[in-house]
Amino acid sequence: MQPESPSHVGKVPVDEEPVMPYGQEQEAHEPMVTQTLYNTLSEKHEQLNNDYCNLRADFYRLKEENTKLKEELQKSRFSFDTVKSNAVHLLFLTGLTSTIFSWIMGKLNHTVSQHAGSLKIEDHLLLILMKLRLGLSNRDLAYRFSVFESTVSKILRSWLPVMTIVLKSLIKWPSKGAVLKNMPKSFRRHFKRCRCIIDCTEIFVERPSDLTARAQTWSNYKHNNTVKYLVTNHTCRGSFLSFFRLGWQSFGQTNNTRIRVFE
Domain DDE Tnp4, which positions (predicted)? Predict the structure, then answer.
């Protein structure tokens, strides 16, 4: 049997040979890419690149929009930063001007602790002053400042004792001349010798669980559990408190005269 001619070994029929790019030579084991497949992949690549560019543009647009919304939310949020720019609003909420508020803040800044990371130290003082001036409930204040009601209670318990000590020196008993100089005309005409007005006020308290304390704080006048305070209000124009006694248990029939006698 005659062996095949070496010239026929390894030959590939002409119609099965892959199309080689013009001017290029490739090894037989490398995969071949037809022009049609190349064009298809190029179109897909261009489309993906366009999608990427569009998504990138949307990302930066949404990021900028998110930043603007955060700034608007911060401005709309109730805080000292949003109140201080309106002098009338600040005076209504606290009874203080911006200058006096800042002065008091300087006095208390290093003597109290913060209980809410979202609230600045100025917001703490604003919350306290609104509580004292407007008598707002803790739930109302919690809603306004976007904190928990328990946080409001912690702020009140930590600030009020400190304010009592630090600001006590601001309570002054004015001289007779100062009272007469600032006395309203109606008082000057009929009550020229009147220096101050003494009265008692009652503040509602939670109903004590202890029966003795519950009986001691019961007020027949208010029909509730209260604590009485003796206060002195001078007859000056723009009157102010110059004396404030510690709380007195109501004892049901305890009247204002009895408290003044004990004073």
Answer: 198-232
Q: Is 153 exposed, middle or buried (0-12, 13-18, 19+ CB in 10 A)?
A: middle
Cβ distance 140 to 105 under 8 Å?
Answer: no
**Taking the domains of the chain in order of start, what are their residue ranges?**
80-169, 172-262
As a three-state string, the secondary structure of the chain is: CCCCCHHHCCCCCHHHCCCCCCCCCCCCCCCCCCHHHHHHHHHHHHHHHHHHHHHHHHHHHHHHHHHHHHHHHHHHCCCHHHHCCCHHHHHHHHCCCHHHHHHHHHHHCCCCCCCCCCCCHHHHHHHHHHHHHHCCCHHHHHHHHCCCHHHHHHHHHHHHHHHHHHCHHHCCCCCHHHHHHCCCHHHHHHCCCCCEEEEEEEEECCCCCCHHHHHHCEECCCCEEEEEEEEEEECCCCCCEEEECCCEECCECCCHHHHHHHC
pLDDT tens digit sequence for 212-235: 888 888 888 888 888 888 777 766
**Tokens 């306004």, residue?**
144
Measuring CA to CA, which residue among 262, 244, 141, 167 is closest to residue 200? 244
pTM of the predicted structure, to 2 decimals: 0.58
What does the alpha-carbon distance between residue 233 and residue 245 come to, in Å, rounded to a whole number? 12
pLDDT tens for 57-112 read: 999 999 998 888 877 766 667 888 888 888 999 999 999 999 999 999 998 887 77
> What span, in angstroms and rounded, lies between the C-alpha atoms of 31 and 212?
98
